[in-house]
Structures are given as structure tokens and as C-alpha cells.
Amino acid sequence: MKRLVLVGPGHAHLYVLEALALAPLPGVETVLVSLGARQLYSGMVPGWIAGDYVLEQLSFELEGLARAAGARLEPGGAAELRANSRELQLGDGRVLGYDVASFDIGSLPAGTELPGVEEHARVLKPLERTLTVLTEATRESGPLLVVGGGAAGVELALCLQARTGRPTTLIERGEEVPRGMPRSARRLVRGLLARRRVALRTEATLVSLSPAAAQLASGESLPFTTCVWATGARAPELFVRSGAAVDARGYLAVEDTLRSPSHPELFATGDCAGFISGQHVPKAGVYAVRQGPVLSANLRSALTGQGPLQSYRAQRGFLSLLNAGDGTAVGAWKGLAFQGRAMWQLKDAIDRRFMARFQRLAGQRPGSRQAPLSEE
Ligand SMILES: Cc1cc2nc3c(=O)[nH]c(=O)nc-3n(C[C@H](O)[C@H](O)[C@H](O)COP(=O)(O)OP(=O)(O)OC[C@H]3O[C@@H](n4cnc5c(N)ncnc54)[C@H](O)[C@@H]3O)c2cc1C
Questions:
Q1: Which of 16, 32, 105, 181 to mutate to test the pocket of ligand 1 (most atoms within 8 A of CB)?
Q2: Is the entire prediction scored with pTM above 0.90?
Q3: pLDDT of residue 38
Q4: Which residues lie closer than 8 Å to 179 by C-beta, 6 or more apart?
Q5: Cβ contacts of residue 272 below 8 Å, gap of 6+?
Q6: Is 126 in the pocket of ligand 1 (CB under 6 A)?
Q7: Ligand 1 close to Cβ of residue 39 (< 6 A)
Q8: Which DSSP letter does residue 97 get?
Q9: Burial, 184: exposed, middle or buried (Cβ in 10 Å; 0-12, 13-18, 19+)?
Q10: Mean pLDDT confidence for 157-163
Q11: Hey, what domains does the chain have and what are their CATH numbers?
């Protein structure tokens, strides 16, 4: 019997589980390692904050997903990877050997090592932590500060402002907001933030947080009663001491086949993969989704020894849809940008379809409550 260990129930692993449910691999025991019993879908978190969804509409029950795929769930997380001995240490100390292991554990928010951040900010990863943000943001009053001007930071600032009506400031270290989006989308988002009275501070580098204020490199101090940390990605800590090759930023190094160049039985996908071929793969869920079918085929090849590995090629661009929290969304596609209700309807339909596919697999009725959900 061979053992396949899937670490992290990220986007691409959902496709691997679906493929295993449709076509089981004889002679292979599959283990899914997660942090907890459910997975929240990040794309719908801003909508949940805005009040568009209830929590069960954006969560997968992992026990059901694992069962459908004939896999065993280990919900205590992975603590350490020992690549040279093909071992994974779980959060409770047990050690799991593997023949093939695949990592889809996402990334961590950058800058959390700055003084005061872990203590005074609501850091959004693991995503379950978002649950406390809404309670705190609706309970408290006073200034709300969102740190990080990427797509997620913009959505959270707009949705929190819409839900709470609190004075909101979005701060970003660089010049561009949303970071990495075309100029037309940036212009549109700036106008939207201004109309919604979300103060935008660009080229503002945060150096530390005290209980009620953020200190900037300029010497300025910005007061807050709630601070939400939504910065860009940094590598999970698991890989640097694992013995497997990592890229310059500490992500698990992979070839375009999603396989490790140093340990051919190791694969990585989504945010936690560092592509060494030089192809540009942004850290976003839409890229992780497209890696799913390639990963699934390649894990089968690695386990059966049959067939060449497929290569993943990142799409050249994608339709970005940002929830504005007021029943509209901003859409950006190849240099064009739009805002309106139709964009929101499109985003809602895409997200619901994605959820329904895997919720059905998990034995959930799409959007239904399967287990008591805590919204804290
Ligand atoms: C609020 C918000 C909104 C976003 N909206 C979008 C969007 O609309 N579109 C988009 O493309 N991107 C969006 N993103 C970015 C997106 O969330 C990530 O790029 C994407 O989730 C990465 O997918 P992944 O498959 O790599 O991992 P993830 O989806 O992050 O899944 C990783 C899983 O692994 C688990 N895990 C972590 N560590 C361990 C461990 N040690 N052991 C076991 N399990 C572990 C995590 O708990 C998580 O369940 C958003 C991000 C945020 C924060």
C-alpha cells in the first residue's frame, strides 16, 4: 500500500480530492492534513463581512470531502516536514511517513513580525481568524485601519466600511492601490474609496503598532480602535528547515510540473509553491484553481509510475472582481475596468458555482448548515 499525503485543503487539493472521488487509486491510502475541520473560501469572506452571505455558504466540511475521496482527515495540521526521510510531523507530534506528499497550505501575511502586530492587529491568516474581525468591527466604534492595499485589503476596507459605517483608513506601502492591477482599475478604485469616505494613504510604511495607534516611518501616528492586517504574501515557515529545495523567498521550490527538483516525491501548488522556471505565477486563488487538474494528473503519475508529468502554464491574465460591499463590484480585465451591479452578480455566480461543486462533493447541500458554526 502506498501513502499519498495532501497537506492543506487549499484550492488545488479540492480538485485532487474530486478526481480521487471519481476515480479512486487502488493500492493508495490518502491522508488529508488540515488546520481544523472546515475550510473557509477566501473569495467570499469580504461578502460575508458585508452581509451578503452567511458563514455556511463559504465553508467546506473537510470530513465530508475526505470521505468522498476515500481519504482520512488529520485536522491537527502539519508541524514539520523531514523531506530526506519522507516524514511529516503532525501538530500532535505523531509522525506520518509518505510515498508522495503534496503541499497546498497557502501563504502567510507579510510584516507580522513588526512590533505590536500580532498583539494589536487582526491578522487574517489562518482565515478562521477573520471570524473575530467582524464581531470586533461591529462591536467597537472609532477609527478602523486596514493595512495592505492589495485586492483583499481594498475589498475588506470597503466591506467593513459598508457593514459598520466606521471611519476607515486603508494604508499601503507602495504607490499602487489595488497593488498589481491595471491603471484603469486603480483610477476607478481610488474614486470609489473617496466616494465611500475610505481614506487612502499610499507610500505609508508602517513600522509598529501600539494598542491604539499605528506608527509610520514618517513619524506620523494613526489612531485606530480596530486594525485589520491584510498585507501581501510571505512563505509558510515549514519549508526552510525541511531539507527540500526552497526558492529565494522560502517557498517550496517546484518545476513547472509542480514537483520539487530536490525530492521528486514532493509536490507543491498554490501560494506555497515557488516556481523556479521563472514563469510568473501571482499568489492568488485563481492560479491555484488552474493548477488543480495538472497536480491531480501528476500525483497519479508519480504514484503509479505511469505517464509523463504535465506542465502547468499560468494564464496570462484573469478577470479580477472586487466586492465593493454595496451590492456592486469592480471588474478589471486586460486594461479595462468597470463597476456596477452586473459585476457583483457575475462574481456572486462564479463564487457560488465553485462552492456548490465542492460542497456537493462533501455531502453538504450548497449553502446549508452541516455542523454548528461559530461566528464568535
Ligand atoms: C480576504 C481575502 C480575499 C481574497 N479574495 C481572493 C479572490 O477573490 N480571488 C483570488 O484569486 N484570490 C483571493 N485571495 C487570495 C487567496 O486567498 C489566496 O491566494 C489563495 O487562497 C491561495 O490558495 P491556496 O490554494 O494556495 O491556499 P489556501 O486557499 O490559503 O488554503 C491553504 C489551506 O492550508 C491550510 N494550512 C495552512 N498551514 C497548514 C499546515 N501547517 N497544515 C495543514 N494545513 C495548513 C490553511 O488553513 C488553508 O485551509 C483573497 C485573500 C484574502 C485574505
A1: 105
A2: yes
A3: 92
A4: 149, 150, 151, 172, 232
A5: 8, 10, 103, 104, 105, 106, 107, 235, 236, 239, 251, 252
A6: yes
A7: yes
A8: E
A9: middle
A10: 96
A11: 2-35+76-107+236-304 (3.50.50.60), 109-233+319-348 (3.50.50.60)
